[in-house]
Amino acid sequence: MIGMRSHSMDRARRVRRLAGIGTAAVLGAGALVAGGAGTAVAGPGSGPTAVVSLGDSYISGEAGRWKGNSLTNTGNRTGSDRAWVSGSSYDPGKVYGATAGGCHRSDSAEVKSAGPLADVAINLACSGAVAQNVFRASNGGVAFKGEAPQADQLAAVAASHDVKVIALSIGGNDLGFADIIKECAYDFVLWNSYCYDDQQAGVDQKIDGVMAGVGKSVDEVRAVMRGAGYADSSYRIVLQSYPSPIPRGAENRYTQSDWSRLNTGGCPFWNRDSDWARDSLVPQIAGRLKAVAAAKGVQFLDLKDMMQGREVCAKASKQVTTAAPASAKTSEWARWIDSSETQGLVQESMHPNYFGQLAAGRCLALAVAQPAGSGFGCKNTAGADQNGMYLTPAP
Questions:
Q1: Could you say which residues of the chain have pLDDT below 50?
Q2: Which of 300, 125, 288 shows the shortest CA–CA distance to 209?
Q3: Alpha helix locations (H) across the chain?
Q4: Residue partners of 278: CB distance under 8 A and separation at least 6
Q5: What is the CA radius of gyration of the chain?
Q6: pLDDT value, residue 372
Q7: Is the dihedral of CA 214, 354, 376, 114 positive or negative?
Q8: Would you state the pLDDT for residue 40?
Q9: Engineered SS bond to 245: which of 53, 162, 337, 350, CB 3.0-4.6 Å?
Q10: Rounded to an integer, what distance in angstroms lies between the CA atom of residue 268 and that of residue 338?
């Protein structure tokens, strides 16, 4: 237990906003397919080719509004806010389109940033989704934010396009990743205690069931594609893991002995908890997802090290200022926790931002260029933009 210290009412008020991490307003009934699904009859081997993304916020494009993090709370936030219109006017729809109220499918989402993998890039992923939101309705699937289960949406795409790649990111919300972040932040700001021990116990209790849901998600995708006439070898599924949004304690540019991690950096976590998240939790999830990919015969893309040195508060990166303009080469690649209640939505916290999504897109493109059954990790080159991403054998 860390020694007790006093906390101002202002800090307590500001951290209440953490309770909203991972939540979103209900989205009204949207289009069946976001990103350009046509109505022409096509299917396997004919019609426009398509790359499709399924799953949760880490692939839907949550936080794509932001080009780094800036302490400036007016105007375009020193050039970091892509939703800025003019004066004090902001339109998230510029980035998230018709899903600005919920799914947050950004224009920079991984499947959009991967380049010309196919004629059309179709993003069916939705922020906040769990495995049940991927399953077909006929097999336990649940509609989410006014939309049919993602596998049922995929069926429509598979019938009208020649699908070549399906990228899947799922399991984080089933595991309660957002709640873990929230509780660890609370323990830094309010309770003066570590979170890693209690949270690890919860993860260990849930993870087998979570991975069963991930495996069923893959099975549901296969069933949809077979039902649409696709041979398993005619397209590929890429199951990916999650990047770490925070650095190790020793790699944090702010000391944990004062309040700069909360008030300036937007990364309110103790060193011990940061080390656990970076070197235990994220690798544990990645290892289990790799095992699911191997068991189901799909490609694995490990993103756990994708943002090494580019995380929120990392020493190797900078906040956006007039002296350090927004840049994929120098800025942070993940969205901070905006505890000051002055910018955007708290649900964007701890997700890859615009720069991070460009990097994830490059990782997907590199993986698709490799044999379908292979597994790879994706890392960045220090001081480079998304073009410096490279693959390593998945550990």
A1: 1-10, 12-17, 19-39
A2: 288
A3: 9-15, 57-60, 93-96, 110-113, 150-160, 172-175, 177-186, 196-227, 260, 271-276, 282-296, 354-368
A4: 244, 246, 247, 248
A5: 20
A6: 85
A7: positive
A8: 53
A9: 350
A10: 11
